[in-house]
Amino acid sequence: EEGKHSDNKILPWNEALKIVIVMGILYFCFKFLRYALDSWAPMLLEESFANIDTATAGHLSTVFDWVGFLGVIAGGYASDKIFRSHRTPVIFIMSVGTFISTLLLYLIGGTQLWLFVLLLGVIGFMMMGPDSLLSGTAAMDVSSKEKAVVATGIINGLGSIGPVIQELVIGYLKTNHGQSAVFLLLVIMAGTSVVGCGALWRYCKKQHLAL
Q1: What are the phi and psi torsion angles at 87 (to 5°)?
Q2: pLDDT by residue, tens only, the chain of 211 residues
Q3: Is the dihedral of CA 136, 139, 141, 145 positive or negative?
Q4: Which of 19, 75, 168, 181 is the most exposed, fewest CB within 10 Å of its CB?
Q5: What DSSP character marks residue 106?
Q6: Chain-centre distance for alpha carbon 95
Q7: Under DSSP, is residue 12 helix (H, G, I), strand (E, B) or coil?
């Protein structure tokens, strides 16, 4: 009942559990963002640009998922080959990319249709990497084989709250405060993930964890 250390020392499960919970909270942030954009991007596109119809907005919004798929591959490759199976550096770097692209979407995304779509794709690319790593390989790396399923369940369980919450919160903001408030919330969530991912990476480096 222990996690793994980079120098093969034992990491007690009660310590690993703290990391798992933090990872679950971070996964919540990424799932919130992911499902918010999956659910609301077509409507946000249609309302931002009067010259496109509902069908076109729906088609254009799929760039988020198509380019996001490439982010999963890139994140996995980078963590395995460049960072030698360390996940937290990639998670942090891609979370910064998510924040920057989300902030740009909020500030200038509504000025040009191509810019909105481009930034939507960049967000998908940057977000899907951490999304995949947190719920997959990182969840298995943080704990022993015996506890890997438990760790994965906790991380995915906390993360799965995000899609539910985002529907309620974004629906309320859009109705009562307008589209700008929705974009601002996405920026805040992305910024929160940067802080959390940075703290996780720093902790793992300090403790010499192979994560």
Answers
A1: -90, -35
A2: 455 444 444 567 888 899 999 999 999 999 999 999 999 999 999 999 988 999 999 999 999 999 999 999 999 999 999 999 899 999 999 999 999 999 999 999 999 999 999 999 999 999 999 999 999 888 888 877 778 889 999 999 999 999 999 999 999 999 999 999 999 999 999 999 999 999 999 999 988 888 8
A3: negative
A4: 168
A5: H
A6: 7
A7: strand
Grouping H, G, I as helix, E, B as strand and the rest as coil, residue 4 is: strand
Closest CA to 95 of 125, 63, 61, 135: 125
CB neighbours of residue 70 within 10 Å? 14
Residue 11 forms beta bridges with which residues?
Answer: 3
CA 148 – CA 138 distance, rounded (Å): 10
Q: Which is nearest to 110 in space by CA: 184, 47, 165, 200?
A: 47
Please check whether residue 92 is in contact with residue 197, taking contact to mean a CB–CB distance below 8 angstroms. yes
Q: How far apart are CA 47 and CA 62, in angstroms?
A: 17
Residue among 204, 200, 203, 207 at smallest CA distance from 30: 200
pTM exceeding 0.85: yes
Alpha-carbon gap, residue 192 to 175, rounded angstroms: 24
Both tokens of residue 10?
Answer: 């034992």
